[in-house]
Design brief:
Shape: rod-shaped
InterPro entries: LysR-type_TF_proteobact-type (IPR058163), LysR_HTH_N (IPR000847), LysR_subst-bd (IPR005119), WH-like_DNA-bd_sf (IPR036388), WH_DNA-bd_sf (IPR036390)
Organism: Abyssibacter profundi
Structural class: alpha/beta
Pfam families: HTH_1, LysR_substrate
Radius of gyration: 31 Å
GO molecular function: DNA-binding transcription factor activity; sequence-specific DNA binding
Number of helices: 9
Helix content: 25-40%
Largest sheet: 5 strands, mixed
Family: Belongs to the LysR transcriptional regulatory family.
Number of domains: 3
Order of helices and strands: HHHEEHEHEEEEEHEHEHEEEH
Strand order of the largest sheet: 4-3-5-13-6
């Protein structure tokens, strides 16, 4: 009768040990069973397959060419199965989720909502690194990275989260005296720059059809949150990242200073190791993050 099912795994493991050891006795010692049990299992396997897998030799027992071919295939399959089993067990017991992201998105979007995630997953430890440094996921420095850009690789998965745009914002006090809908004269206004994106204002001016030489003087910040705080205090005009800064406008801390909006490339993405794709903690955080209003 033709074979319709793969033989039991213990028979395949016995075949691999016989091929590796070249002896029923040595295979039995490795498998912690008796030589007669090895002989019985090999006979059972050959009957199931309908082929001869082993033959006697002067030095003991060796596999036939068909047996050796089958052993190699079984070794590959069993190794993959063992690795998958170990990974699944390891992920099931991992209780620390490490997330790295920039300080501004952390403070304005993720951290304010994080108590909700923790409430639904109280047994999970969470480590949040707020830094502009790009953590090396492949070197296991973090489990999830939220950042602009990034690259999908054989080891890393990338999921787009959000398309952002930049638009000038300022303190409401700077707009005093302007008619409704009027724009600030940026040539006579201090511009607030981010050292992380030094050409942002030039790109915005090009989008708005403004000569970059007509832009006003500037002050530079290495922290985007500090840059927005400076704008809130009336120090100058900043490029607000929308929709992340919408809360600042709704609260009245900032207002629009000009109508032109500059689409930001690349998009804001989530990256993680492909081998962790089925890790329950990562799946839970990914689903929770996508449900946040900022990322819908």
């Amino acid at each position: 009768m033709p074979l319709t099912r793969t033989p039991p795994l213990h028979l395949l493991r016995t075949l691999c040990e016989v091929g590796r050891r070249g002896s029923y006795r040595e295979a039995a010692r490795s498998l912690h069973i008796t030589p007669s049990a090895v002989s019985h299992q090999m006979r059972d396997l050959q009957q199931r397959l309908g082929v001869t897998l082993v033959e006697r030799s002067p030095g003991g027992t060796r596999l036939t060419p068909m047996g050796e071919h089958y052993r190699q295939a079984c070794e590959t399959a069993l190794t993959a199965l063992d690795e998958a089993t170990a990974q699944t067990q390891s992920q099931a017991h991992r209780k620390l989720l490490r997330i790295t992201l920039g300080p501004f998105i952390a403070s304005e979007v993720v951290i304010p909502a994080l108590p909700d995630f923790h409430r639904h997953h109280p047994d999970l430890d969470i480590r949040v690194e707020t830094s502009m440094r790009l953590a090396d996921l492949e070197a296991d420095e973090a489990d999830i990275a939220l950042r602009f850009g990034g690259a999908e690789t054989a080891a890393l998965a990338l999921e787009p989260l959000l398309s952002m745009s930049a638009q000038p914002v300022c303190a409401p006090s700077l707009r005093q005296g302007l008619p409704p809908g009027g724009e600030l004269p940026l040539g006579r206004t201090t511009l607030l720059h981010s050292t992380a994106v030094p050409d942002a204002w030039s790109a915005w001016a090009t989008q708005a059809g403004i000569d970059t030489d007509a832009l006003g003087s500037g002050i530079w910040f290495d922290s985007y949150l500090s840059l927005l705080r400076a704008a809130e205090q009336g120090l100058g005009v900043a490029l607000g990242l929308f929709p992340a800064v919408e809360g600042w406008l709704l609260s009245g801390r900032l207002c629009l200073a000009a109508d032109t909006s500059l689409p930001i490339q690349p998009r804001y993405n989530m990256l993680y190791r492909r081998q962790d794709a089925n890790w329950p903690a990562l799946q839970a955080f990914r689903e929770w993050l996508r449900a946040l209003p900022a990322f819908r």
